[in-house]
Structure formats: structure tokens, C-alpha cells
Amino acid sequence: MLSKRGLIFIFLFVFFAGCAKKEIKSLISPEESLLEESPSSLQKIDNFSLEGFTDKGKKQWELEAKTADVTENLVKMEEVKAIAWGEEGKIDLESKRGEYDKEEKKIHLINNVLIKTSEGTKLTTDELTWDVQKQEANTDKEVVVEREDLVARGKGATALAEMKKVELKEKVEVRAEPKTVITCKGPLEIDYEKNVSKFYEAVEVEDERGKILADRMDVLFNPQERKIEKVFAYGNVKILHGDNVAYADEAVYDAKESKVILKGNPQLVVVP
After folding, report:
1. Is the pTM of this model over 0.85?
2. Are strands 267-269 and 43-53 parallel, antiparallel or unpaired?
3. Which residues contact 169 (CB under 8 A, 6 or more apart)?
4. CB of 212 within 8 A of CB of 251?
5. Cβ atoms within 10 A of the Cβ of 160, count?
6. Percentages helix, strand, coil for the chain, rounded to the nearest 5?
7. CB 153 within 8 A of CB 143
8. What residues contact residue 271 under an 8 Å CB cut-off, 6+ apart?
9. Number of alpha carbons in the 13 Å side-chain half-sphere of residue 59
10. d(CA 188, CA 196)
11. Could you tell me where the DSSP H helices lie in the chain?
């Protein structure tokens, strides 16, 4: 049997332990208590997929990922693949990681981003945001755009209309056959339907025949021969061919005929 002294000790232990529990409970705020009791809103899903439709019920895009962490407004994904259908073709997108904003309906692709169109245009970058409703891609990172023998590089880009129109923002370099390099400060506007590229600010075209410099240029490409067909230069035009130099306000260069037409205050400096 317990002694009177032992009973008193047990009574005091139980009493103070109960008080301690009350004190600890009082230190927890109602919000923290609610978080403890409610389950987490995060859901982890393997082989995640999602689809989007137009107002008429036509499938507009679909999205797949190896794994996804799903919250109320955001889906964080790994190994992302997506398809977007336009009026005339489709676009394939992929990246190592991605996020889908349910509210804004935008897919943010991260690491090894690749976009390919059914017509053969390819865009690669490190990070890109795809607006699924506008069918528009935007990035402020370094970008490479390739189509056939035309390779364009720049910093920052916007792609529209199933990537039929692409704008590179700055630090532009374009390489085309045969051994032609075009640079400008930017922007560069590429229209693949019209086979024309518009270069802005400090534009320079160089090949084995010489150089053309101007404030702005429109370059017309021949899609069959995959070469530059004509160059329309505007503002402070300067053409270098060997030691000879030509100046004009405007100029038209016909690559097929190797002919230059100077317009507006033409000047020639010919070295004998």
C-alpha cells in the first residue's frame, strides 16, 4: 500500500501536469490550431494530365507531366510535355520543369525549353511563359530560333500565331546560307508566312562579297532556295565591296543578280 506521503506526491504530479498542458494549449493561436487539425491542401500526382477547350468545346491544348504538386491555384510539374492546336497546325512544347497557373491560364516552362511547330520551326531557351488562351509565348532569356537553314539568336522573344511570327527583342544575330551573317541591336521581326525579316537599329549584313550597313533593313528570303533574295536598306546606308564604298539614304540589293540600286543622295568612293 502507498503511504500517505506517496499519495500526496501523485496528486501534486497530476495537478501540475494538467496545468502545464493548459499553459501550452493557451500559447497556440487559433490559426495554428486550425492548421494542425486541417489536412494539407497539397496533392502529389504521378502521370498528371490536364486539358483545355475553346468556348465551342473544341480541344485547344493538353498538358502532361511525370509528377505534379497540385495546390488550389498552382500546379508544379516535372518532365513537362504539352500540345497546343491552332487554326492551321499544332505546337509541341516540352521542358524539364514547369508551373501551370490555373487562374491566369499560363504555363511557365523552366530548363531545356523546346517549342516545335508542325511546319518545322524550332525555338529553344531556358525559360518561357506560354499563354494558352492567346497562343502566345514570351521570354526574356537567350533564345535560338531555327527553320531550315535560317538560325536566329537573340535575348528576349515573343512568338505569335502558331509561331508564324517571332520577334527577338535585342542582341540579334542571324545566320543564313551561303555564309551570310546579319546582326542588329534589335528588335528583329520574322514573318515566316511572308518570308521576310525586319531588322532594326545598327543593322549589318556581311558575306563573302562585302557588307551592307543601315539603320533598318527588310530581308526577303527565298523559301525554295533557302537563301537571301533581296535586301531593302533604309537610313544611313553604307555598302563596302573590297576597298570601294557606296553611300545612300536607301538601297536595294538583289542577291540573285548581284546588283545594288542606290536611292537618295548616292555617293561612290572607288579605289583605282
Report:
1. no
2. unpaired
3. 140, 154, 155, 156, 157, 158, 186, 187
4. yes
5. 14
6. 10, 65, 25
7. yes
8. 242, 243, 244
9. 9
10. 11
11. 4-27, 30-37
- Residue 127 · residue 139 · CB < 8 Å: yes
Q: From 102, 156, 105, select the one nearest 128 (Cα to Cα).
A: 156
Residue 166 one-letter amino acid: V
Q: For residues 151 and 217, give the distance between their C-alpha atoms in angstroms, rounded to a whole number.
A: 17
Residue showing cell 545594288: 260
121 to 26, 94, 144, 151: CA distances (angstroms): 64, 14, 11, 10
Which cell numbers in the block locate residue 232?
Answer: 531593302
Residue 4 has pLDDT above 80, yes or no: no
Nearest one of 60, 210, 44, 227 to 135, comparing CA atoms: 60
56: which 3 cell numbers? 465551342
Kindly report, residue by residue over 30-89, the tens digit of the pLDDT.
333 333 433 455 789 999 998 888 878 888 889 999 999 999 889 999 999 999 887 777
| Measured CA distances, 201 to 23, 52, 120, 188 (Å) | 72, 40, 29, 9
Residue bearing cell 536607301: 250
Separation of alpha carbons 191 and 167, rounded Å: 9
C-alpha cell at 152: 536566329
Is the model's pLDDT at 233 over the cut of 90? yes
Cell of 68: 505534379
For the chain, the first-to-last Cα distance in angstroms comes to 128
Q: Is 172 exposed, middle or buried (0-12, 13-18, 19+ CB in 10 A)?
A: buried
Angstrom distance (rounded) from CA 16 to CA 54: 66
